[in-house]
Amino acid sequence: MAQLEIRIGNVTLKNPVILASGPAGYGAEYADFIGLEKLGAVVTKTISLNPKAGNSGRRLLETPSGLLNSVGLENVGADLFFGEKLPRLLELGAKPIVSLACEGREDYLKLLETVSGNDTVDMVELNLSCPNVDCGGMAVGTSPELLNWYVSSARQILPGRALLAKLTPNVGDIAGLAEVCQDAGADGVTAINTLLGMDIDPDTGKPIFDRVVAGLSGPAIMPVALRAVYEISSRVRIPVLGSGGITSVTDARKFLAAGAAGIQIGTAIFYDPGLPERIISAVTGAQQGKE
Amino acid sequence: MNMNRGPFQAVIESKEQISPSTYMLTLQKPEGFVEAMPGQFVSIKIGDSTSPLLRRPFSIMDSTPGSLLLLVKDVGPGTSYIVSRKPSQTLDLIGPLGETYFDIPSGEDAVFVAGGTGLAPLVFTARKWAKDHRIGISHFLYGASTERELLTGICREDFTYVHVATLDGSEGFEGDVVKMFNVLREKGALPERYLFSCGPAGMVKKLMEGGTENFKSHQTSLETVMACGVGACRGCVVPLKSSGAPVYRAVCSEGTVFEADDIDWENWRE
Ligand SMILES: Cc1cc2nc3c(=O)[nH]c(=O)nc-3n(C[C@H](O)[C@H](O)[C@H](O)COP(=O)(O)OP(=O)(O)OC[C@H]3O[C@@H](n4cnc5c(N)ncnc54)[C@H](O)[C@@H]3O)c2cc1C
Ligand SMILES: Cc1cc2nc3c(=O)[nH]c(=O)nc-3n(C[C@H](O)[C@H](O)[C@H](O)COP(=O)(O)O)c2cc1C
Ligand code: FES
């Protein structure tokens, strides 16, 4: 049998191909286009305790082989997520990984308690890296002290559940921060979230986005993500999931070769929803070739 | 139940240039393409390279048993790729996308106002509801910069009256389409029942400032920049009027057609 499974903490995913948090929403939006039940997992849109309206003004701008987004963690909040969105995704036969916002400490602890009370969730991803919100997110992901607090709090409140820490590339030593997460009890790390960028209207001299900065994703950031995964996997024992600009089977193979246990696909599904299933077929084929 | 919404490889049956920069494409309807409603759209992949990266959205101008009609104005790399494709070549598309559509109860009169390629969903509306005899008398008001940019040649049969405006006065009313709307309305020439609009946000805003409050319903199909087209990424939102916290709706999955009065035009920056 082909050994496609990957293990994170005490949870096994049937293959290493995962949808990244955000681009696929709560998963069901893509059910007409992607066989969600065939994937290793679907990381759902990051949720916060309370619903969030998201950012004002323009939210998207295409760049050469890339995409700037300033969505600002618009999400339905924990109640609607656990009441409707998650059950729907489970109904579709998908394996969910629930992405959690790392904002104010009090709300964060309440959010962890909510997850703790829901036994359909066995794996969470802590979004320690959103560049599109003022409070929490990336501010957490750049500070070793805060990272340690957020990860170890989740470790305490969610014993026995698999815990992923999603890192921002907007730091000096990303592998060092991955080690902090490992020491704080993370079972795996996801690298990377979007890179900070911006755009300006040259006629008015004003930034395009209301929040000025936005997150860059897509093929333009692939080399940065690959470098991060390579560095992190040589420094930590826990599995690393690669995210950032994966748009082909070849890209996926590069991430696996760099040390990633699995890969997450985001922006590429916007134009090529067939990609995740093609990567699954390709890795299945490659594994069988090795037997 | 899942629906088959693609991606489809749709074969181009014919391509007709109808103004210096605008083309009408007739595509063979892909097998399994779900029945479309006026205001819905398809999203087209732009070649095999990653620049341009995202699919581009286009309103459905008509959907018959055998074909899909699109109107495409060449404004940049994506549209340029599409209009350079030749008959018998294919376009990779997903659709129909969008949830809400232009709707009218039986026997009502309707006024349609469009600029640019905003004509496409309005033509579909007229054709779709003409089949059910839902629309009584219809007025189509269309504006362009000059006579050569008028696209009304393709839809004269679809409306009872067609009124055109050109900025340079080379044909029809001299001025913009909103000015023409106001003049006709003040003359009492327009039945103020159902108003359907599609065009640049500036046009719709001006239309409302000019006075549309007597209409029973003003439905408008909006355009914003999109990434997923299916309601997942929350990138294509418009603000709705609200007394409390801001409320946003995704144009792709909660539109494209909105009651114009519900939109918070003041806080919408395209
Ligand atoms: C629901 C919907 C229906 C549409 N229907 C039609 C149609 O029937 N016919 C047609 O020709 N066009 C239509 N458009 C607009 C069309 O999608 C854009 O013109 C196209 O994406 C531009 O791509 P490009 O690569 O050629 O140009 P780009 O270089 O990407 O853009 C050229 C210019 O168009 C602007 N633009 C880009 N995307 C959009 C957008 N989504 N809405 C408004 N402006 C945009 C850019 O800001 C830029 O100023 C529709 C858009 C939406 C959202
Ligand atoms: C529109 C959009 C929304 C995103 N939302 C989230 C989010 O809610 N949580 C998160 O952890 N990452 C989010 N991301 C980041 C992606 O999960 C991914 O890490 C990043 O885009 C890089 O991968 P890609 O190039 O394959 O998209 C978002 C990305 C995009 C483009
Ligand atoms: S384009 Fe993604 S939600 Fe509308």
Word description of this protein:
The complex is a heterodimer of chains A (291) and B (270). By secondary structure, chain A is an alpha/beta fold. Helices cover 34% and strands 21% of the residues of chain A. Chain A has a single domain (6-54, 74-194, 218-290), classed as Alpha-Beta Barrel (TIM Barrel). Chain A contains 9 helices and 16 strands. In chain A, helix 7 links the parallel strand 15 and strand 16 (262-265). Chain A starts with 5 loop residues before the first strand and ends with a helix. The model of chain A has no long low-confidence stretch (mean pLDDT 94). Chain B is an alpha/beta fold and 270 residues long. Chain B has a domain at 3-97: Translation factors (Elongation Factor Tu (Ef-tu), domain 3). A 7-stranded antiparallel β-sheet of chain B has the order 4-3-7-1-2-6-5. Chain B is globular. The model of chain B has no long low-confidence stretch (mean pLDDT 95). At the A-B interface, strand 5, strand 6 and helix 8 of A face loops of B. The structure holds flavin-adenine dinucleotide, flavin mononucleotide and FE2/S2 (inorganic) cluster (FES).
Percent range for β-strand residues of chain A: 15-25%
- Principal-axes geometry of chain B comes out as globular
Identify the bound ligands.
flavin-adenine dinucleotide, flavin mononucleotide, FE2/S2 (inorganic) cluster
What does the largest sheet of chain A look like? 8 strands, parallel, barrel
What are the low-pLDDT stretches of chain A, counting only 5+ consecutive residues below 50?
none
Tell me which protein chains meet in the greatest interface and how many residues each side has.
A-B, 37 and 37 residues
Notable traits:
heterodimer; A: TIM Barrel; 9 helices; 34% helix; globular; B: 270 residues; alpha/beta; Elongation Factor Tu (Ef-tu), domain 3; seven-stranded mixed β-sheet; binds flavin-adenine dinucleotide; binds FE2/S2 (inorganic) cluster
